[in-house]
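[recover] target loaded
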């Protein structure tokens, strides 16, 4: 059992430029999906209420973590509401990222990225958060029904109105993002500066196409679920049952699939590196992400203060090249077509994370 880490001081937190923008964000940011616990799915993540949320926000700010990520669909708006109350009096000290697109009702216009829905949801998020602007506004998923021109024109208008500072996307395919960037360029509209993506030691598909695209187009990654949907907490190992408290009991089917033996091999490598560094398994997994190309910020969640302090201990140090290579080797999988084919032509089509030489 590792002792609680000392928190990184504000002056030691690394801040990274967010894509093709002038905004700087902390290497670690806080995910508020654990706030509210408004339904069974989100209760499995956490049920943090107002008083504890204030405490977690203060701990983050003391550590230099000044970006807080949430979404309108988290507990059907309750997470935004709890976060809004927790940051009262501190708005000028922090950045807020929230999202829209997914369903917020049963009506025919209560989902998607139409002008109607985005304006409605932006206004609702502003009210729940108790603020008059959103620093980073994400499209939570790609809406193939609404014309991309309508989506981006609406977002550009929100930027010019001062209700949104920067726009970003989440869970897009490569062509979704590239088409959007091209249309923004065509009309001189605000462009996506970040892509919030799933990326972890047991989920490296982001590296195949989205990471090269991000490098080429200067779109940073904000990483969600960096511990592989709760699988890289250090509590799941070969021959052991799931711990009594784990989101996987209720949410495993909604999350990314991971083969058991593959997971155990990655955890074995994490255990070995954790012993070498004197850090915990989650800290090692988070530090690995912080050294990957395009990653601007890794979004950490926490049910309580102890978990938050543990996760904050992922900064202020670095894995060695040999330790990174060990983790890379344990977590490597053969990519799908055309990426396995492209790896045979890396002299002219280099990958930002080259395949390990066998």
């Amino acid at each position: 059992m590792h002792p609680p880490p000392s928190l990184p001081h504000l002056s030691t937190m690394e801040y990274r430029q967010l894509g093709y923008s002038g905004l700087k964000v902390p290497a670690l940011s806080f995910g508020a999906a654990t706030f509210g616990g408004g339904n069974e799915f989100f209760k499995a993540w956490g049920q943090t209420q107002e008083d504890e949320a204030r405490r977690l926000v203060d701990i983050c700010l003391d550590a230099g973590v000044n970006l807080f990520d949430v979404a309108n669909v988290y507990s059907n708006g309750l997470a935004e509401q709890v976060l809004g109350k927790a940051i009262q009096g501190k708005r000028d000290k922090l950045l807020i990222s929230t999202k829209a697109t997914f369903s917020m009702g049963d009506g025919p216009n209560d989902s998607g990225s139409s002008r109607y829905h985005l304006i409605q949801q932006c206004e609702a998020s502003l009210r729940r958060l108790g603020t008059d602007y959103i620093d980073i506004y994400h499209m939570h998923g790609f809406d193939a029904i609404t014309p991309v021109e309508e989506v981006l024109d609406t977002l550009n208008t929100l930027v010019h109105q001062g209700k949104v500072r920067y726009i970003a996307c989440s869970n897009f395919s490569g062509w979704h993002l590239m088409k959007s960037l091209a249309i923004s360029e065509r009309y001189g509209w605000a462009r996506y500066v970040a892509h919030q993506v799933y990326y972890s030691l047991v989920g490296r598909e982001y590296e195949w196409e989205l990471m090269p695209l991000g490098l080429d187009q200067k779109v940073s990654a904000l990483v969600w679920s960096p511990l592989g949907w709760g699988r890289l907490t250090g509590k799941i190992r070969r021959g052991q049952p799931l711990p009594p408290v784990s989101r996987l009991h209720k949410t495993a089917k909604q999350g990314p699939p991971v083969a058991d033996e593959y997971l155990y091999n990655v955890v074995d490598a994490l255990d070995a590196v954790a012993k070498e560094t004197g850090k915990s398994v989650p800290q090692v997994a988070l530090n690995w992400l912080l050294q990957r190309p395009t990653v601007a910020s890794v979004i950490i969640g926490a049910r309580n203060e102890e978990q938050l302090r543990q996760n904050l201990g992922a900064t202020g140090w670095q894995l060695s090249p040999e330790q990174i290579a060990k983790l890379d080797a344990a977590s490597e999988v053969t990519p799908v077509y055309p990426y396995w084919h492209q790896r045979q032509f890396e002299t002219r089509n280099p990958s930002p994370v080259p395949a390990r030489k066998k």
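[recover] notes: Residues 10-345 form a domain with the TIM Barrel fold (CATH 3.20.20.100).
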